[in-house]
């Protein structure tokens, strides 16, 4: 048992504020729906209302409304099919044999996503409880509509979910993670081995995964503003524009290519030789300076672009370019294979610094500030 808990513990994470709020709202919606249908309407099967209410406290108000339509359709279909089959056959078992294949197929083929499961489960409830008279069917559908209305109302009126902070946090993590990787490579590139280079390449691949997560989060943020009556009343931090993603996608791609070259030059299975130790020694300061540029971008995004932060960024970028010029000098007089390996690293570093440079027409303004100013609420 202890071993099982030890394996599960690393997978568990502390819930964030949004998860806690949504969980409490779902519980409150279920209680309200139960009170309305069980006490006020004295419904014979009040379970349907809290069941629907819990399901409809979704991550966005728009998703709650869309899911409510799908859920009501599936519950209505399951209820009517089960009641009809039971009425015609007069036998619960035969009705199940007829209805379950139909409702499961309906749930799978209908464009309702995960809500398709409600068609067969509702049919099972109807047949198991034996409540398929006309008044019972009417009550069940009414309970579902009441639960759906309560779930949507609670989600829309009580701290309606906004996801801009999540987008901002993911966007801020890009320069931080790029800078961390560049700093690690800069500190150890002179004596790296295949295992260390492979880990760098894996870290670079994780940057691409972070960009994909950011893309999904942006869509969720845009969705959270639809049909949301309270988004203008709540404090919302505008995330950086999508231009920010483009800049850091390019940087991530450069790091992916750079780490792949380092990995291949350290592998015994590849014919690409390791660059000279002197060149690697000179490459370290270049990558460390590029890491400082990333750190400056993170600071500018978090605190704004003042003169001190912009000067720090400009100085770090200038140091990186000077270091690049020194590394380029080592290209002269190298053999074809060594020149190919070193030239690949130089080309990747040159492109990396170009990607970190200010956009044309925005001289002296770092990408962090340029794309932050393009944000809209």
What does this structure look like?
The protein has 377 residues and is mainly alpha-helical. Helix content is 75%, strand content 0%. It contains 14 helices and no strands. The protein has helices at 2-8, 17-40, 48-55, 61-89, 92-109, 118-129, 134-157, 164-188, 194-224, 242-266, 277-303, 307-329, 336-356, 367-373. The chain is elongated, with a radius of gyration of 29 Å. The protein starts with a helix and ends with a helix.
Summed up, what is this model?
The chain is mainly alpha-helical and 377 residues long. The chain has 14 helices and no strands. The chain has helices spanning 2-8, 17-40, 48-55, 61-89, 92-109, 118-129, 134-157, 164-188, 194-224, 242-266, 277-303, 307-329, 336-356, 367-373.
Radius of gyration: 29 Å
The total of beta strands comes to 0
Order of helices and strands: HHHHHHHHHHHHHH
Spatial shape: elongated
What does the average pLDDT come to? 83
Q: Helical proportion?
A: over 70%
Which percent range describes the beta-strand content? under 5%
Q: Helices and strands: which structural class?
A: mainly alpha
Q: Any low-confidence stretches, pLDDT <50, length ≥5?
A: 1-12, 360-366, 369-377
Please describe the biggest sheet, giving its number of strands, its sense, and whether it closes into a barrel.
none
Number of helices: 14
Distance between the termini: 50 Å
Which descriptors would you attach to this protein?
377 residues, mainly alpha, 14 helices, elongated
Task: Show the helix and strand layout.
Layout: H1 2-8, H2 17-40, H3 48-55, H4 61-89, H5 92-109, H6 118-129, H7 134-157, H8 164-188, H9 194-224, H10 242-266, H11 277-303, H12 307-329, H13 336-356, H14 367-373
Helix pairs in contact: 2-3, 2-7, 3-7, 4-5, 4-6, 4-7, 5-6, 8-9, 8-10, 8-11, 9-10, 10-13, 10-14, 11-12, 11-13, 11-14, 12-13
